[in-house]
Write a structure and sequence with these properties.
The chain is mainly beta. The protein is built from 2 helices and 16 strands. It has a 12-stranded antiparallel beta barrel with strand order 1-2-3-7-8-9-10-11-12-13-14-16. The protein has a two-stranded antiparallel sheet with strand order 4-5. A hairpin with a 5-residue loop joins strand 4 and strand 5.
């Protein structure tokens, strides 16, 4: 049973630290994009360090967040992501006769925030490119709940550098974006290589979007950190597919719904996640 509890410490590793939006396009000067989002996953399966799917005690993670992009200039964009309410849960376990085997647990807190500065470095015809520096601010709780095994953050300050290259098609009604990134982690967590691809197409008032996103660990951290924080988000690896549909009822407002599926992974939850949001463009 304790093995399942320690596996729970990997809960957040399947949660994106920041919404991937904008691609290689910085916001224009003075323009603002705001999104109120909800992310949820309820899982009873887990990708082991060997990549095998294991059964675990049902766990849940739910985050309500604010995401924003603001154009400082036509080339510089400031981006912020703040999960202002995070709920992490562990279900109770009972035997068929009703005898309690393990009590349930819960944690309600804020989550880790991300602050990003994006700079447009390329604009050649339909191609645009941007460099981004993201600072992960550990505001969340790395050890909470009655068991002190539930988290809303990982307790480490990370710095991630990413490059995004995008191209638009069909008068801006279709686009494709590619992403490469390096995430430098502290507190003896392993550094990460990140990569992704995104395709979007507009059909009337709908945007149809598909994302591939992957993380590979350099495995250069200290394994002793397991003694303190379990295997929470250290040496994680995965490749995910995330379809999304957005509906814009005006040029300024829209809503989106999406899902995320881990096609393969190590040390992450194996069940699908779901998200929704409402956004405003000013």
């Amino acid at each position: 049973m304790m093995k399942n509890l320690y596996i729970l410490l990997s809960l957040l590793i399947s949660v994106p630290s920041i919404s991937w939006a904008g691609g290689g396009w910085p916001q224009k000067k003075g323009k603002l994009y705001l999104k109120l989002g909800q992310y949820s996953i309820l899982a009873k399966h887990y990708y082991s360090p060997a990549g095998h799917v294991l059964d675990i005690t049902t766990t849940g993670y739910h985050a309500t967040s604010l995401y924003g992009e603001w154009g400082i200039t036509d080339k510089f964009t400031a981006i912020a992501y703040f999960p202002f309410f995070v709920r992490s849960t562990l279900n109770k376990v009972e035997r068929p006769d009703g005898q309690l085997v393990q009590k349930g647990d819960e944690l309600n807190s804020i989550g880790d925030a991300d602050i990003t500065l994006k700079y447009g470095i390329l604009k050649a015809g339909p191609y645009v490119g941007a460099l981004s520096l993201t600072l992960g601010v550990p505001l969340g709780e790395p050890s909470g709940g009655r068991t002190e095994l539930l988290q809303s953050g990982d307790g480490e300050f990370n710095q991630m550098l990413t490059f995004e290259l995008s191209r638009s098609f069909g008068k801006g009604h279709q686009y494709v974006s590619l992403l490469l990134g390096f995430n430098n982690r502290t507190e003896n967590f392993s550094d990460e290589f990140r990569y992704g691809a995104e395709f979007g197409a507009k059909v009337k008032r709908f945007w149809l979007i598909a994302r591939l996103y992957g993380i590979e660990s350099f495995e250069n951290g200290n394994e002793a950190i397991i003694a303190n924080n379990g295997i929470f988000s250290n040496n994680l690896e995965y490749l995910s597919l995330s379809p999304e549909i957005a509906y814009e009822w005006s040029e300024q407002m829209g809503v989106s719904v999406g899902a995320g599926f881990a096609l393969q992974g190590k040390r992450i939850l194996a069940d699908p996640s779901f998200s929704m949001g409402i956004y405003l463009k000013i």
